[in-house]
Amino acid sequence: MALLVDTTVLVGVLRNHKPTVARFDAVRDPPFISAITVEEILRGVRPHEQDAAEALLAWTIVADVGEQEARQAAAWRQDYASRGRTLPQADTLIAACAHRRGATLATANLKDFPMEDLHVEHWP
């Protein structure tokens, strides 16, 4: 199964979080990341992390956010809003990128991805 890593995983790698780095180092094929994650990483990168962030992004496959992802994200947001829970736009778009590709979503924040039809792995 394909793998899509969210921003929390890449931040863990950049900040040398040992469990995250160990798990990420075991990944053989370049994982997907969402175009949303590219923006989040570049917005939050520290000056001394810039080169490492660019190298990390260059190794991944960027999953663009298109109409299908937007429609899936909107459906999830509507569904959860009707149950009294607001899901952030960025998280639902990232999840939709994984869902469309049949990929497992790796994240350090399971609570951000409660969608029942999404395969999610906790990467602490």
Principal-axes geometry comes out as globular
Strand order of the largest sheet: 1-4-5
What's the SSE pattern?
Answer: EHHEHHEHHEE
Low-confidence stretches: none
Question: In terms of quaternary structure, what is this?
Answer: single chain
DSSP strand tally: 5
What does this structure look like?
The protein is of the alpha/beta class. It is about 50% helix and about 15% strand. It has one domain (about 5-120): Rossmann fold (3-Layer(aba) Sandwich), CATH 3.40.50. It starts with a strand and ends with a strand.
Name some characteristics of this structure.
124 residues, alpha/beta, Rossmann fold, two-stranded parallel ribbon, 6 helices
Structure summarized in a few sentences:
The chain is of the alpha/beta class and 124 residues long. The chain contains six helices and five strands, in the order E-H-H-E-H-H-E-H-H-E-E.
Mind sketching the topology for me?
Layout: E1 3-5, H1 7-14, H2 18-25, E2 32-34, H3 35-44, H4 50-59, E3 61-63, H5 67-82, H6 89-100, E4 104-107, E5 120-122
Helix pairs in contact: 5-6
